[in-house]
Amino acid sequence: MEYGVPMVVETSSSGKITTSGNPWIFRISPTSEMEAKAFAAMVAKFGIKKADFLSVNNDWGRGAAGEFSKMLKSKGIKVGAMETMDPKATDISAQLAKIKASGGDTLFVTTGVEQITLILKQAKEQKLTHKIITTGGSSSPDQLIAQAGAAADGSMHLLFFAPWFPEAAPNPDVAKAFVAEWKKRGHNFAGLTEGFRGYDGILTIAAGIQAAGKADPKAIQKALWGVKVKGVNGPISFIKQGPKGRESAQNVPNIYVVKIVGGKITKF
Q1: Rounded to an integer, what distance in angstroms lies between the CA atom of residue 93 and that of residue 90?
Q2: pTM, two decimal places
Q3: Which of 162, 136, 158 shows the shortest CA–CA distance to 31?
Q4: Which of 2, 10, 140, 212 is the most exposed place for a label (fewest CB within 10 A)?
Q5: CA of 216: how far to CAs of 2, 28, 164, 222, in Å?
Q6: Tens of pLDDT, residue by residue, the chain (268 residues)
Q7: Torsion-angle region of residue 17: left (phi > 0), alpha (psi -120 to 50) or beta?
Q8: Is residue 176 located within the same domain as residue 243?
Q9: Total number of domains in the chain
Q10: Does residue 110 belong to any structural domain of this protein?
Q11: What residues make up the domain containing 196?
């Protein structure tokens, strides 16, 4: 904000990013609150009676647990254990033991794919019967299948792009073209669930610069408010968030749920 340079944020979920009064911020990724609200529309399909939470101990993890637990309570669903773990933790057995003892039927997990892999393996070792649902869009299901094996079976994952089903995207032609080009360049398919973020970010920046017609920060900032981009995730445009007169810009992205069944990715 100090230097007056527009910033397109393509990976971040903390509500603070767009509510702190920085008018130079343009976020295209969903907040944890948006993710929870999107899940709320389909929560009945999961048959959740009591949910537990296991989150990485940072703003991302705690924020997601807070938003999802609040949403579940509003739906009359009980919330049990609220466990956290250090970002570098490899032994999560103590937290999983508490979660097992809570009597819940569903476990929401928010952390990176490396820790999710460990959690799935250790949950299987402890014979945890919970349905496991990951949030945050960073679970890389293909990587989980490769690294966690049978322990990943039955787990469900909230994502912001489902490259196995590009036809289901709001802009299927864009999604199909992106997946095809990714494969053509020899990139690992598992990286698509994260790789699309940068692509959509660059599309948004390019649209803003083109609309501004010049390399002037103020002109680009103004132009970004009016962009309408056909992204891989879906349409990209901005609504206002934050203090009046100093609002940041927030896109309303699409959210998908997939399930691992028999070592395959399926639509839920």
Answers
A1: 9
A2: 0.92
A3: 136
A4: 2
A5: 16, 21, 39, 10
A6: 667 899 999 998 888 899 999 999 999 999 999 999 999 999 999 999 999 999 999 999 999 999 999 999 999 999 999 999 999 999 999 999 999 999 999 999 999 999 999 999 999 999 999 999 999 998 899 999 999 999 999 999 999 999 999 999 999 999 999 999 999 999 999 999 999 999 999 999 999 999 999 999 999 999 999 999 999 999 999 999 999 999 999 999 999 999 999 999 999 8
A7: alpha
A8: yes
A9: 2
A10: yes
A11: 7-30+168-250
Note whether residue 183 is domain-resident: yes
40 and 25, same domain (yes or no) = no
